[in-house]
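Exam revision sheet. Question 4 asks you to relate a sequence to its structure. Input first:
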Amino acid sequence: MDELDTPVLDNHLHLDPVNGRNTAAVEDFAELGGTHLLVLNKPSWLLGVEVDDPEDFREGFDLTVEAVEAATEVLDGRAWPVLGVHPALISKLDERGYEPEEARDLMCAGLDVAAEYVAEGPALAIKSGRPHYDVRDAVWDASNEVMKHAFEVAAETGCAVQLHTEGGEDFSEVAEWAEARGLPRERVVKHYSGGHVEGPIASVLSNKDELDVASQADEPFLMETDFIDDPDRPGAVLGPKTVPRRVRWLLEEGHEDAVRNAHVETPSRVYGIDTEATLGGN
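Answer key, structure tokens:
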């Protein structure tokens, strides 16, 4: 297979060093031409971690940092951790008897811990959001407060935020919340998005239809698989080979500018990373 003459970044992928394929999945990505990864910590409960204290988040964060170090060893570019608190944790805490305000405070404290990893160097960005399913009003309000806290922390730390939210295209209000807290909307990324999003930067789930929309929109965007590295669900959501395959398809379709947009220009704009300078072990 011909080599790709471009960096190839998967903006949202999970690695599970406890239960999953971990580095073997990265090798699949690299074999097809993938060069760079943003690795999100899996939800704490999927790593067997029960969270009752802000320090409890560190176990999942540390596992992700270790997985990223191993991933970088097999990439022509490198990987970075993106650490934070999955918004569905509020429902797990609710089931365990936490009041929404108590869950909110614990999750906000977890984001403070994640920001330490950014400030001290291992992590590139933080993640937050709100449930993508129906919840009662008190849980929804608490979740929005957690997300707003993520924007505050990111503004103070000088990093981007990846958001896990409900589906849709119009997140202008969310971008306004970020800007009101000092975080530019171009540093807010809507994970698992379609080809067009209002407000944040779209991180497009890499199916052809949505990539076709994004490629023709002349707006900044990123590409992702949301690979979850679960041996019981191999290839879910998309497999680790998908982004390099879609890059080849985009190039075949004549979308060279879109490929540069998603894998060089937008990563620089959002995260301040240089995917070209970090190729070849540099």
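Marking note for examiners. The chain has one domain: 9-281.
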